[in-house]
């Protein structure tokens, strides 16, 4: 399979690194206007093909993944449109709010179009497909993003909420870790010690839920005793509005 990725910034870079490390994509071309960035990728992953020419990059690609800023999508699509083969190529938009319908509008017809939003760690990707997408194309895209992390096929109306949970959610988790570190420092631990404790606690919670399949409340019951510190802490979180905080965040349509 020949894969072309246009855009090697934070999001594109995370995807590219995962695909390159997997060893399961034998032909990856990375296109970006930043030659210094391309040189860094080539040094780290010599097997990559790198170029500043978007047109050359998309020629003969089986899958074209566009990971550029949303306001640049129309310009990039206009640039490469004349060399795309929509009967054979899969086109993926990884640009926020640039949907499969927008791909069709810019390219002039329907095709094997996908709107995929991964989080910054590429550990979770939400995949939405255009009406004409075949089962074969869907499997190819699912398999590709599964090399980086978990995938979930959803309607385009759920990509935004999924992005808020998994993409914005990383920032929320980081803020929780920071708060836990601050609490640790207040109790006497050095910052790096507090960070270690917070990270291992987070990892332990995730590992436990994955291993057991428990609902989080089941796990909470295992570590909560009457009159104990845990229930007091949980009650403080509830009093501070912890459980309802994310529900008050509105999804932007920028």
Textual characterization of the structure:
It is a single chain. Helix content is 49%, strand content 15%. It is of the alpha/beta class and 254 residues long. α6 links the parallel β7 (124-129) and β8 (150-153). The longest helix has 22 residues, at 191-212. The chain is elongated, with a radius of gyration of 21 Å.
Topology:
Blueprint: E1 2-6, H1 10-22, E2 27-31, H2 35-44, E3 49-51, H3 54-58, E4 63-66, H4 73-80, E5 90-93, H5 100-107, E6 112-118, E7 124-129, H6 135-146, E8 150-153, H7 159-166, H8 168-187, H9 191-212, H10 216-223, H11 229-239
Parallel strand pairs: 1-2, 1-4, 2-3, 4-5, 5-6, 7-8
Antiparallel strand pairs: 6-7
Helix pairs in contact: 8-9
**Element-level helix/strand string:** EHEHEHEHEHEEHEHHHHH
Could you describe the largest sheet, including whether it forms a barrel?
8 strands, mixed
User: Low-confidence stretches at least 5 residues in length (pLDDT < 50)?
Assistant: none
Residue share in β-strands: 5-15%
Structural class: alpha/beta
Shape: elongated
Q: Please report the total strand number as a whole number.
A: 8
How many helices does DSSP assign? 11
What is the mean pLDDT?
93
Level of helix content? 40-55%
| Oligomer category | single chain
How far is the N terminus from the C terminus? 34 Å
Strand order, main sheet: write it out: 3-2-1-4-5-6-7-8
């Amino acid at each position: 399979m020949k894969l072309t990725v246009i855009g090697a910034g934070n999001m594109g870079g995370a995807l590219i690194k995962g695909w390159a490390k997997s060893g399961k994509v034998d032909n990856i071309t990375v296109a970006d206007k930043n030659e210094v960035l391309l040189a860094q990728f080539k040094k780290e992953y010599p097997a990559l093909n790198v170029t500043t020419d978007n047109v050359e990059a998309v020629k003969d690609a089986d899958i074209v993944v566009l990971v550029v800023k949303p306001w640049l999508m129309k310009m990039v699509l206009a640039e490469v449109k004349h060399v795309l083969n929509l009967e054979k190529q899969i086109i993926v938009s990884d640009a926020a709010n640039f949907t499969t319908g927008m791909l069709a509008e810019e390219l002039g017809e329907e095709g094997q179009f996908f709107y995929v939003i991964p989080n910054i760690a590429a550990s979770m990707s939400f995949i939405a497909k255009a009406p004409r997408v075949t089962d074969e194309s869907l499997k190819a895209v699912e398999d590709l993003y599964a090399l980086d992390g978990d995938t979930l096929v959803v309607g385009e109306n759920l990509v935004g909420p999924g992005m808020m949970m998994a993409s914005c959610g990383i920032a929320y988790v980081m803020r929780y870790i920071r708060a836990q570190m601050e609490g640790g420092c207040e109790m006497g631990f050095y910052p790096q010690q507090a960070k270690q404790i917070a990270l291992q606690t987070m990892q332990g919670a995730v590992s436990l839920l994955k291993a057991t399949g428990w609902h989080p409340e089941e796990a909470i019951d295992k570590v909560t005793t009457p009159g104990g510190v845990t229930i007091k802490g949980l009650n403080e979180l509830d009093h501070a509005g912890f459980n309802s905080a994310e529900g008050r965040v509105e999804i932007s349509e920028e």
